[in-house]
Amino acid sequence: MKRVAVLTSGGDAPGMNAAIRSVVRCGVSKGWDMYGVRKGYAGLISGNIQQLGTRDVGGILNKGGTILGSARCEEFKTEEGRLKAIRGLSQMGIDALVVIGGNGSQTGSYLLSELGFPVVGIASTIDNDLTGTEMTIGVDTALNIALEAIDRLKVTASSHQRAFLIEVMGRKCGYIALMAGIAGGAEYILLPEVETDPEEVAESLRLAYEHGKAHAIIVVAEGAKYNAEALTNYFEKHKDRLGFKIRATILGHVQRGGDPGAFDRILASRFGNGAIEAIDRGEFGVLVGLNKGKITTTPLKDIVGGTKQISQEMVELARKLD
Ligand code: ADP
User: Fold this and answer.
1) How far is CA 193 from CA 110, 123, 278, 300, 311, in A?
2) 133-161: pLDDT as tens digits
């Protein structure tokens, strides 16, 4: 019989609870004892760990956030902090740890596994910026929330012949901006990965106005060089030539807070099972992800510090559709 602990770390993402539930229930179904760590790596260091049974993870599948809590933990970035965490886990007789989190959290899980502790990572971040998986937990729900906002803003934009700048999450990875822009029929999409001349954006607005469009929607990733603020400032200086009145909306954390949709609940449930199966095979130091429809494992050493490429096919499609 094994003892396995699970934690959530870094930015919360809709579907983290579904992943916790799946890890616990798939572990219990193997006859293992399962444990939950509160507040990410901070709880690992302070020993905030409790046993979780099947009923303890009931009623959470449809809830956003994470019942285990999440935290940023500077101490874990030091080797001393990580050794302290391992001592705590060993004292409790825990054989393996599942880390549900994004880029930073998986760097932490890699460093923990380098110190010899058996770790399996589950890809979870609404930015979808982790390599080793095509999709991360939370991104689909966040995308749908952004899309709903775009649809609503389009209605009000049409009534007043306005252009709306909508800033969505994505510091390094423009996945949400690109997909929300395509699904929401944006006139222009600004991504961190693609250098954009603001004059080109202004030109697309002028053309939209000349073609008699009742509204113009520009979707901007927060990490784009010209984010909502920079673009607003630029347009303010050139407003006479634009045709439309510009309004900016920054969606911010509302994108994180939603209840997970079907895709994220199913993905998280599959990832949870994938982590338990990896532990059962004795496969550690890996990230559980989704590739070509299948649940895969990729060595953490290959994903740490990696940069996910944006799909050029999607970038070109967006250009054709504006
Ligand atoms: P995310 O996992 O969402 O990218 P963060 O980047 O904030 O979130 O990372 C979450 C936590 O993971 C940090 O508070 C820290 O405890 C741990 N972590 C992040 N980067 C490292 C690192 N380079 N070394 C060790 N631990 C790290």
Assistant:
1) 26, 21, 33, 24, 10
2) 999 999 999 999 999 999 999 888 777 77
